[in-house]
Design brief:
Helices cover about 70% and strands about 0% of the residues. By secondary structure, the chain is an all-alpha fold. It is elongated.
């Protein structure tokens, strides 16, 4: 007998048929749940991919709006604060927007002009006189700068990777305390800045803070700028200053003055007699 025929087993066909039937029964029983599970997994994966694309698009849009708001050298504090609120939690956009606003408020306190004021290049003063800040308004901007810097410090101090933002906030808070002439508060903030800089491996910032601490006593000897009422006028400057409303009232009063008719008639007659050709021809 052939070796191939010797390998034939009795009932092998029935056994294979039974195995195939069991596989079919298994598919009938479990195919639907498996397919549903795979479909759900595919939907979840597609949803996660969509959310990731949306997240990246929001990050790009946030940085784009921040860049647009800070272009031109004259950013609007209101726009920056709106961006910080709208994109809260989006990378470092809120902190950067608030830090930029803090800088604008500190600059307003130092120079005494409204943020965004148009400056006359010849005089160095605002074109609009109303953009000049008085002492109370300057203090308001200093307070707002401190509040925003504190907000940035709260947002960045507990987040890993945002140490540099926290240090920038500390530096501005120290500057605010110097503006208030609270030098002990400024030293305390510089000490916190120095400690965080050393911990975060920023030796240049640590050296800056240490240098500021060493020179705080020199700031105490600098007298604050005198108020306008405290300035003694120089000879020839005793004339009272007029407001824009007073100047406009004077101009209006001058424009409303009517000339004396008798003077106008005499003047016209004299002019006519001088210019009338007939009078010239009749003269001897």
């Amino acid at each position: 007998m052939d070796d191939r025929q010797s390998g034939i087993k009795e009932g092998a066909g029935l056994e294979d048929s039974r195995v195939n039937q069991e596989f079919v029964d298994f598919l009938n029983k479990w195919s639907s749940p498996v397919l549903i599970t795979l479909a759900v997994a595919a939907l979840i994966w597609a949803g996660l991919q969509y959310l990731e694309r949306q997240r990246i698009a929001k990050i790009d849009q946030a940085f784009s709006e921040l860049d647009s708001a800070t272009q031109g050298g004259n950013p609007s504090p209101a726009s920056l604060r709106t961006i910080a609120a709208e994109y809260e939690g989006v990378r470092a956009v809120p902190e950067l927007a608030l830090l930029t606003t803090t800088e604008l408020y500190l600059n307003a306190f130092v120079v005494g002009f409204e943020p965004g004021a148009q400056i006359d290049p010849q005089t160095g003063l605002p074109v609009d006189g109303e953009d000049v800040l008085d002492e109370a308004q300057r203090k308001v901007y200093l307070e707002q700068a401190g509040q925003l810097a504190s907000q940035v410090l709260d947002l960045a101090s507990s987040v890993e990777g945002k140490e540099l933002l926290a240090m920038q906030a500390m530096s501005r808070l120290a500057t605010v305390e110097e503006g208030k002439r609270n030098f002990d508060g400024a030293v305390s903030m510089y000490q916190r800045l120095e400690a965080l800089a050393k911990e975060s491996q920023y030796p240049a910032i640590a050296a800056f803070a240490s240098n500021r601490i060493a020179n705080v006593d020199a700031l105490k000897n600098i007298a604050p700028l005198p108020h306008k009422d405290q300035i003694v006028p120089l000879p020839g400057e005793e004339m009272p200053s007029l407001t824009q409303e007073q100047i406009q009232d004077l101009l209006d009063s001058v424009s409303k003055v009517e000339p004396d008719p008798s003077l106008v008639q005499d003047g016209d007659a004299e002019v006519d007699s001088e210019t009338d050709p007939a009078s010239e021809s009749e003269s001897p």
